[in-house]
Specification:
The chain is an alpha/beta fold and 432 residues long. Helix content is 33%, strand content 19%. Strand 16 and strand 17 form a beta hairpin. The structure holds zinc ion. The site of zinc ion has 5 residues, from loops.
Length: 432
């Protein structure tokens, strides 16, 4: 006797018609035509059932603040940082909490159940840190929220940032952040990487830095981050977010750099929506894409996980908490349109991101948390193409969000009465 059985599920690895049996919030058994009963059953009717989406790079202290106190007119990263600097002193804990909770509602509806958020530690009052610690506790039953201490104005560049970052970690922030390319000089950037990795090693914490979010091919802090990761024994516990300068780097230099990143087992976290929007702004034509070398990093065996980064904040006026939108952009910007490519992109929104965050009990194996999303699509390729509708979102074996299938009634003589966009793929390419 189980609590819930989901029957006829297609899985991301290509298996079809699988039954998933859930007991006590865990996946108890999976297989074909399992003869068992349960308190509740869902027929997935051959639709894709996946572990939840995971966003390994976000800014929950800024989300949904679009237009406060004004819009970003140039649309650049630097005006975004300046604009956030205007907003930060007038933020209240209550307002940050309210906006973050609203974002988490949206995330749940999109099947996004784990988020790593950077939290700005630049303000001495640490209002944003207090707010997001409160949010982390409030959403714990339905979202795994990790917090990164992020010195937005620079670790050395901003007076007091060293003290406030350490205070944020004392308060319970999970991860050490950084922004070496924003320090005053290249050497101070490198020094900040060393100092922050040392803090992580001493405190036994992971590292996740905004690293080389620039078009400058000489911005090479990822090299220092990899070297310090090895030196401090932090292999596998460090993430390099953005790495956009790699797009513009000399190819010979990159041929030495990628093996170094692989040796350090750095988790690579590009943010396709924000990178394509904010980078290349000083170019006329041809205009660079500002996306790191996704295919090459994946081929080197690195764990590549995509982040959403921003939703309706000083840096980005769009976004919808939909990680499939992130993957959709990644396919285009990285030009990864092959069948295997798309599978890898889907993994970068799910299992790779879970690995980057170090999530325990994630996946579809027996004993994993019964955290699942049923999509109005038959396989990951269709899910990405359609940015597929979420039919049900399940956390620890309980449905926490559901919606009716998206189907249009058609009033055309001699044509079908209903249109389901998920039924239009000419060929099923699910397996083999
Ligand atoms: Zn970011």
């Amino acid at each position: 006797m189980f609590d819930l059985i989901i029957r006829n599920a297609n899985l991301p690895d290509g298996r079809e018609a699988v039954d998933i049996c859930i007991r006590d919030g865990e996946i108890a058994e999976t297989g074909s035509k399992i003869e068992a009963t349960a308190t509740a059953e869902i027929d997935a009717t051959g639709r894709l059932v996946t572990p939840p989406f995971v966003d390994p790079h976000f800014h929950m202290d800024a989300t949904l603040s679009l237009g406060l106190p004004r819009m970003n007119h140039s649309g650049t990263l630097l005006e975004g940082i300046a604009l956030w600097g205007e907003l930060r002193p007038v933020l209240t804990r209550e307002a940050v909490v309210e906006r973050a909770l609203r974002y988490c509602d949206l995330a749940v509806s999109q099947g996004l159940l784990a988020i790593r958020s950077h939290v700005d530690t630049s303000d001495p009052g640490l209002v944003t840190v207090e707010a997001l610690l409160e949010v982390r506790a409030k959403v714990a039953p339905y979202i795994d929220l990790q917090l990164v201490a992020f010195p937005q104005d620079g670790y050395y560049r901003s007076a007091g940032a060293v003290e406030t970052l350490n205070r944020a970690l004392d308060m319970g922030v999970d991860i050490v952040g950084g922004i070496p390319h924003f320090e005053r000089t290249m050497s101070e950037g490198a020094a900040s990487v060393e100092a922050l990795c040392r803090i992580a090693a001493e405190r036994g914490l992971p590292v996740d830095m905004h690293c080389d979010e620039t078009d400058d091919p000489m911005s090479r802090h990822i090299e220092t981050l990899a070297a310090e990761t090895i030196r401090f024994g932090l292999k596998g516990r460090v993430a390099g977010s953005h790495l956009t300068s790699m797009h513009s780097m000399d190819n010979y230099y990159v041929s030495k750099l990628i093996p170094l990143i692989a040796e350090a087992e750095i988790n690579v976290i590009p943010n396709p929506l924000i990178n394509i929007m904010l980078q290349g702004r000083h170019d006329t034509y041809p205009k660079r894409r500002g996306m790191t070398r996704v295919r090459e990093l994946m081929e080197a065996g690195l764990n590549v996980a995509f982040g959403h980064d921003c939703v309706m904040d000083p840096w980005y006026s769009m976004g919808s908490a939909d990680m499939l939108e992130v993957g959709h952009m990644a396919i285009h910007v990285a030009q990864m349109a092959g069948i295997d490519d798309k599978r890898k992109i889907f993994d970068a929104l799910t299992v790779n991101s879970a690995k980057a965050m170090g999530l325990k009990g994630y996946g579809l194996a027996k004993g994993c948390h019964a955290d699942l999303v049923i999509l109005q699509a038959r396989d990951p390729l269709e899910a990405l193409r359609l940015k597929a509708h979420r039919l049900a979102v399940i956390r620890r074996g309980k449905i926490i969000a559901r919606s009716a299938p998206k189907i249009s009634d058609l009033m055309l003589e001699g044509r079908p009465a209903k249109v389901d966009g998920a039924e239009y793929a000419p060929l099923r390419m699910a397996t083999s």
